[in-house]
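Please, does this match?
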Amino acid sequence: MAEKIYAIPVNDAFDHDCECPVCLMYRDLEQQAVDFTLGPSYMDDQFRMITNKTGFCQKHMQMLYDKNNRLGLALIMKTHLDQTNEDIKSAQNNPIKSGFFKKTGGGAVDYIKKLNKSCFVCDRIEAVFDRYIATVHYLWKTDPGFPAKYRKCKGFCTEHYARLIEDAPKELSGRYLDDFIRVTNELYITNMQRVAEDLEWFINKFDYKYKDEPWKNAKDAIIRGMIKTNGIVSGEVEKLKQ
């Protein structure tokens, strides 16, 4: 039953004509997580107990700010700062040992390193995104129409190509696994080469001898190249859906 629920957003993403349907799935989850964070939940003390400890990564803090809910963000930040100050004060009084020496304040450094790797929005996304990836593999072996849809996509960004390959053995085996790996490899290379050729033509258009030549598919080649090499481009989700 769970796979059927997750199949809806997975199928929706692969129905779009975009450079990476997995980026599209991730972006939708990201927007939902940001909306949830600054929804009615921020007034809940139990919710803020979690965000107080995890905080937010730089990217998602910026996205929260861009939502223009200043009161909600202020409440979340205030209690998070209170928690952080309390924890760091405590950690400062617990120096860590290294060999025969004590590092004064070392406990605070370790705490900050751990804090900088945590993010409430990232955690909320990953909890569902893992199931989305598993559902891609599940549909490959159970939905007769999905492999054809998968083959028609324009490939994937480098990060999500690796994720699809790496996680495939968790859900697939035998000929299903072999076929999935082969098709995914082909999709990735073929479409990366396509975008590279578009970038080459984009560059050529800056040469005087090509000035009267048509742009072909090269006008948005930089954006599509950024998607392929670095995943989702903030603020460019609509271009993914075109």
